[in-house]
Amino acid sequence: MFMVITMRVITILLVLQLSILLGRAFPMPGVSKGKKGRPPTQSSISTAARQRNPGSQTPVPSFPPSHWVNPYRNCNMEKTKAIDNWIMDAFNMTFEAEHMTRDHPAFNRFFFGHDFPSFEMMIRSLNSRRGLGTDQKYIVRCADNGQKQCPPNTWLAVDIPGHAICICSDMFHHETAKITLASKPFDGSEDGWCRPPPHDLDLYMLSARALLSRMIRIRLQTAEDYREGDLRIWTSARNLKSDYTKWKQSDPRRRGHPPPPPLSNPESYVASIVEFFLTRKCGKAFNPDKIIWN
Questions:
Q1: Model confidence over 98-144: pLDDT tens digits?
Q2: Could you tell me which residues belong to the region Disordered (predicted)?
Q3: Cβ–Cβ < 8 Å for 154, 145
């Protein structure tokens, strides 16, 4: 009886050892080891999955606003909640833009083909916080209109060298302040983001777009967006590519002051990112040629 039990124990041990050896020789498919034999992290697995099927899943921000922004200054609880929503909406759109391709209409409408590596670099810089410095974040403060930082009829003021954005009280009181990505469904209903055209851009994440524009201004170290005459900055961004091309092709003796290249215009990035986001989320229901340019 003792010999039988002993043999069974030995057999079990041999089977376990064989299983371990086979596991090392034939690892489970889709799972690889990290550096120095360590198991992969969750982020490395999800990155590998996106590389295998780039369009299968959109990356979404897994960080709170504090990943990009220092604690808000002079902002009460209600304003803090609103800013949180605007910032996360902005980064939801920039994370979606990681899927942008060189031949996508949302890119080609605003940029030249050779601009794509720089565009990609901007998106990665925004999403990873690189570009502000190793330990630096944006500084966001609140102020009332009429104070030094916020002249009348101003939504946002930006201090580019200080990486600071001042959000003025008028921005919180605007009728579109409560329009966030979570406030509407992504469907074709009357209240949905994907409702039939025409699309009034004043109703599309206006506050998040404004904040995103200032973040890009800080990265580009430029104080203003390109504005063509009395046209709005979004319309000007849409025209900038052709305006810049016409200027380069014109007689050098009559060129006059050049418009900026699209890569130097913050609103060109914002317009491309937003258009791409809505095209991805709504498909053919969002028609960029049916936008109302008020």
A1: 999 999 999 999 999 999 999 999 999 999 866 565 557 899 999 99
A2: 31-65, 245-266
A3: yes
